[in-house]
Design brief:
With 306 residues, the protein is mostly helical. It contains 13 helices and three strands. The protein has a three-stranded antiparallel sheet. Helix 6 packs across helix 11. 29% of the residues are buried.
């Protein structure tokens, strides 16, 4: 297994350095692949060229026997495919036996979204004039108003804000930069926080916070950069005001995408705003409002009027 383990370390470096994977993503891949290598060890498969399609199919079957969801099995098989592709590229294996293995088809699951009315009630219920309250209101408005991820909110720096020009520079998965428009309630809430909330929070900074805290848009009570868990807790708390328990920041992102499409946004423009590399990722949103689809058809199609 020494050969496999060395190759795994090299693959992790490849993911982080060449592919720009975040530490969290790379760690998830390592965890999945360590389980795969343990399976190979149990089958006395000790080198890449001894791995066959049948071995990987047996591994896939073992995952199903564990009762894992189809989405989890798909993710792990995808990790195995990527790993073997890397082995071939580096000359450590003659072929990729995982290439011909079909992962289980995941059942289509539509993302949970809030209605426009629910978003309005949630934001209207969140009124807190303290510095931390102004910060929290700005976070909620920007999560929904710009479709950002929790990690992107936490990673925002002051020099990423171009409010006079109406946009934010956002660094998403793999540190990929994109331009996100900001206007209306989100812009107003952010400006109010920057003028009236952040200066007070910044005064609580300790010497240990350093330059990172000085650069950060959203600060905690100690003047340091706000963490993702704080954003999760904030959204969960805001959700309780409208009886939506366990509300997640990603639900606000899904809601943003759904409401933009319903309002007539172009799918490709939405792709750029959300930072999705693949257009197919957005197809799920087109199934969320069949009523709207039929209304648009009835309004636009000439034969429907006859």
């Amino acid at each position: 297994m020494f050969e496999f383990e060395n190759a795994l370390d090299e693959y992790m470096s490849h993911l982080r350095i060449e592919r720009g994977a975040s530490p969290r993503t790379a760690e998830a891949y390592r965890h999945d692949l360590e389980g795969y290598l343990a399976f190979l060890d149990s089958r006395d498969v000790d080198s890449p060229d001894r791995v066959t399609r049948e071995v990987i199919v047996a591994y896939e079957g073992s995952l199903a026997e564990e009762g894992l969801a189809a989405t989890t099995v798909r993710r792990r098989i995808s990790a195995v495919r990527g790993y073997h592709k890397f082995l071939v590229r580096e000359g450590l294996a003659a072929g990729n036996p995982a290439e011909a293995v079909d992962a289980p088809r995941a059942a289509e699951r539509l993302p949970d979204v809030l209605s426009i009315e629910e978003v309005g009630r949630m934001l209207d219920a969140y009124i807190d004039e303290r510095p931390s309250g102004l910060r929290d209101r700005a976070i909620l408005e920007v999560l929904y108003g710009c479709g950002l991820r929790a990690s992107e909110i936490c990673g925002l720096n002051l020099d990423n804000l171009h409010l006079d020009d109406g946009f934010l520079r956002v660094f998403g998965k793999g540190s990929k930069e994109r331009i996100v428009p900001i206007a209306g309630a989100a812009e107003r809430a952010l400006r109010t926080y920057l003028a009236e909330g952040r200066p007070t929070l910044a005064r609580g900074a300790s010497q240990g916070n350093g330059a990172d805290a000085q650069a950060a848009v959203f600060l905690n009570q100690r003047g340091g950069r706000l963490g993702r868990q704080s954003v999760f807790n904030l959204v969960r708390k805001a959700g309780r005001a409208i009886n939506r328990y366990d509300l997640h920041p990603h639900t606000l992102r899904h809601s943003f995408a759904t409401h933009m499409l319903k309002g007539g946004a172009d799918l490709r423009v939405l792709q750029e705003i959300l930072g999705h590399a693949d257009m197919s990722t957005l197809q799920v949103y087109t199934h969320l409002d069949r009523t709207h689809l039929h209304e648009e058809y009835a309004h636009a199609h000439p034969r429907d009027k006859m």
